[in-house]
Structures are given as C-alpha cells and as structure tokens.
Specification:
This protein has 13 helices and 5 strands. The protein has 308 residues and is mainly alpha-helical. A 3-stranded antiparallel β-sheet has the order 1-2-3. A two-stranded antiparallel ribbon has the order 4-5. The protein starts with 10 loop residues before the first helix and ends with a strand.
C-alpha cells in the first residue's frame, strides 16, 4: 500500500473537536490560540489564509449564507459516501473505508506508524494528539499505556517503546465504537467540513470540494506553504476562483499543480502522485465537476469503480 503521512494540525484543534465541539461559526474554539492568532493577524498583520477565521462576525455571517445557498455537493449523504470511498482508495487502496479504522503500518517513509481513517502518524504529532484526546474521555483504552512512548517518538520514524504491542493495541482499540466515532469526528470536523465549506465559498462543485478535502487530509490544515491553506494561497496568486469570476476547471488545474508540487517536495516521503495524476486530474479532464457516479479511476496502478 502506498500512502502519505498526514501533517499534524495543532494540538488544541484536535482536542477541542473531539472533546468540546463548541466554538464560533469559524469552527475554531473561541478561546483557542488559533482564534487569538486570527484576531491578532486581522488587527496587526497579514490576513489569516483561512477566510472564515480571519473574518469578523458580520463577514462570517455573510460567508455562511453564501455556503448555505450553494448546492449540497459533497454534503449530501450519497456524495459523502463517494468522498469516503475516494479517500480510502488513496489512503488504503480500498473502497471499503469502514475497514480502515484498525489499519496500521509503517510504509518506511520516515513518519513512523500510520493508522486509521485519515492516516494518523506516530512521527508527525497527529497520532499523539488523537490518542491523548481520546484517552481523556476513555482512560482505560488499549492505547493509553503507549502515550509515553508516543511522546518520545513524536517527530521521528522510531518505534522505540511501541513495539511489539502497539499495532495490536491500535487494532484492539478500533473494535470500540467510541474509538471509531472519534476517528470519524476528526475526519469530519477537522478536515471534511472546513474543506467543503471553503470550497463552496470559492464557488466550487463536488470535485473541487473533494480536492480541498483530500489536500487538507494529506497536507494538514496548516498555514505553511506546504500545508492546505498555503497551497490554496499559491493557487489564488495564479488563478481566480469561481466566486471571483474565474473558470472552475482552470482554477482547479492550477490548484492541483501547486498541490502536486508540494507532494513532490516532501522529504522522507514517497512521491507517488497517483491521487492527483490518475484520479483527481482525470476527473477534471473528463469534466466530472459534480463527481456524479458512475466513476472510474486508478490509484497506484489499481482500477477502482463506483457504480451509478
């Protein structure tokens, strides 16, 4: 299986989403460092690349109205399932996304163990964040004893303190409905919903919404040049979104160029760009902007199909 590591989001976002899903309409907890950063940036410096986080209350309300008026796109139940299947093909070479809760392996890309629906990695901080947050609510879960080791290997590809029992513990934890639900909450609240909301604000249909979602999962919802918001900023510098009067296909073509360049630039990771080259780009070239099944694509040389 070929996959890429998730670049970790800040600790406070994952913890708050799992354990305290409240907050303002931006999706950020009102007392979080990210919310404070957005307010400070708005007052004193560069605009936060997340337009929802950077907006004031009136602007955010207008943005939300724009999103609400947009077609359902990937928010429709049928299309959510399409999104989950597309992501599973990229992350786990399968359409059965429900089989991915307990998956865990080290692909040798330098990011340690990768596991679960969105590829939590022991070496990129996000697995530690997730297990810490889950353990606060479920202190007796099978992964709790491995928290000291996860803290020690964070930022490395090491398995020190994790082997030989950690993979079995992850699989055991995945038998718990609460653990599966927690993974879904991170996928939905931290990646899917912000990506779809922003894509709708940019005037993008289901394909654009999926491209944003997949990029956010793969590169993380950070503001750096090699994270999701940085990639979007680079694309905006070259092309207008639909909301700005631009052509949807032309904008997505530029966005995929920038996302692919980031993938190729990552150190200590595999550089297979199938998720763009033989899936997203093919959908774009075929005019599948609505991602309406039937769909056929290739991932790492294997052909996948979603029937109508």
């Amino acid at each position: 299986m070929t996959r890429f590591a998730l670049i970790a989001a800040p600790l406070v976002i994952a913890v708050s989403l799992l354990l305290n899903p409240g907050g303002d309409d931006s999706g950020l907890p009102t007392d979080s460092p990210e919310a404070a950063e957005a307010a400070e940036a708005k007052a004193t410096g560069p605009v936060n690349p997340d337009p929802f986080a950077a907006a004031d209350d009136e602007e955010r309300a207008q943005m939300n109205r724009t999103v609400e008026r947009a077609p359902a796109g990937l928010a429709a139940p049928k299309m959510r399932e399409v999104a989950w299947q597309l992501l599973a093909s990229a992350e786990g070479s399968t359409l059965d996304w429900r089989s991915q809760y307990g998956t865990i392996e080290d692909s040798g890309d330098g990011t340690g163990y990768a596991a679960g629906l969105v590829g939590f990695c022991s070496g990129t901080h996000d697995m530690l964040v997730f297990v810490e947050a889950f353990t606060k609510d479920h202190p007796d879960n099978p992964l709790a004893p491995y928290l000291p080791a996860l803290r020690k290997v964070d930022g490395t590809g090491s398995h020190e303190g994790l082997d030989p029992g950690f993979t079995a513990a992850w699989k055991k934890a995945a038998e718990d409905p609460a653990f599966r639900k927690a993974q879904e909450e991170v996928r939905d609240k931290q990646f899917f919903e912000p990506a779809v909301r922003l894509a709708k604000l940019d005037g993008l249909g289901a394909l654009g919404q999926y491209i944003y979602f997949d990029t956010m999962v793969l590169q993380g919802p950070g503001h750096e040049a090699d994270s999701f918001y940085g990639i979007r900023q680079a694309a905006l510098a070259e092309a207008d979104t639909v909301a700005e009067g631009g052509d949807e296909s032309a904008y997505l073509d530029i966005f995929l160029d920038r996302a692919r360049a980031v993938m190729k630039s990552k150190k200590n990771q595999q550089h297979d760009t199938s998720r763009i080259d033989t899936a997203q780009r093919v959908f774009l070239e075929d005019g599948e902007l609505d991602l309406e099944p039937p769909l056929t694509w290739k991932m790492y040389g294997e052909t996948f199909r979603i029937p109508s």
